[in-house]
Amino acid sequence: MSKLLYNALQVPSLKEVVNDLREVCEKLEIDFFGIGALARNIWYLDNEKEARGTGDVDFAVYVKDEKTYQNLKQELIKNYNYIESNSNSYCLISPRKTQLDLLPFGEIENDDRVQIEGQGLTILNLYGFLETYQLGISEFEIENEKLKVCLPPAIILLKLIAFDDRPEKRIKDAEDINSILLHYPWMEESLIWDEYYYLYSKEGEELDKEHDQVATEVLGYEIAKISIKNDKLTKRIISILDKAISKQSRLAINMIENSMKETEQEKITLLTYLKEGVEAGIKKYKVK
């Protein structure tokens, strides 16, 4: 485990943005956690892998109603010189031009959906945010301060849904899913061997499974842990994977980063292992 530094996370002015958000959220008694590229990069660095650059930063904020959310935005605008986006009502631009996306969830949601007043994008579908907040986040220490971010299973869960909602605009989500699937086997070896060693054998006999396959199934088990209390959410995840595996969506082909070395079928195989893990996890962790 390495010491985490803001500069190494490859997000411009990230420390200033996090400090601003932390101050305002403490004042308004709002909880928040990092998602998307920020969460991915923290996981990378924590496992001594170089972070990938990104021009924006995403946080989920737990709020009870639109008034609370608008108060959060207005505090950042009036007292910290942030600017509203003309195309996205959930986005603010920091004084140093970093894009800050604040995605509200919690009591503000209506049937997994949020709608607010503003310009441009005003409606969000937020499947999985509450479940992630309850079961899919952890605290990491960055320069002696703690920050909550979602863990790889939750990153995958949220990115699968984001891609499925707007596949034509979320190609980077497919690429991130691919990257996490490829790095998970060695970055989470301790978890895999400590908690899921039994997947390598059956009734005392070793199975013909590669470590990569078992690791991807483990990721599916961990996704199931997060979604298990919400049947609608678990069915949505299975449906998204089914569509990708049967080539009814472009998820698998969009996961290809190097067309000279990777094939769509390889990505479908990865997603098949992931789906098998999710389905097995649902059976294992189902609350009776």
Rounded mean pLDDT score: 92
Element string (H = helix, E = strand): HEHEHEEEEEHEEHHHEEHHHH
Number of helices: 11
Largest sheet: 5 strands, mixed
Rg, Å, rounded? 19 Å
CATH architecture of the largest domain: 2-Layer Sandwich
The low-pLDDT segments are none
CATH fold assignment of the largest domain: Beta Polymerase, domain 2
Query: What fraction of the residues are assigned to beta strands by DSSP?
Result: 15-25%
Number of strands: 11
- State the strand order across the main sheet: 1-2-5-4-3
Distance between the termini: 38 Å
How helical, in percent, are the residues? 40-55%
CATH class of the largest domain: Alpha Beta
Which structural class fits the helix and strand makeup? alpha+beta
Overall tally of structural domains: 2
The backbone outline, from C-alpha atoms, is: globular
Annotation keywords:
288 residues, 2 domains, 5-stranded mixed β-sheet, 11 helices, 50% helix, globular
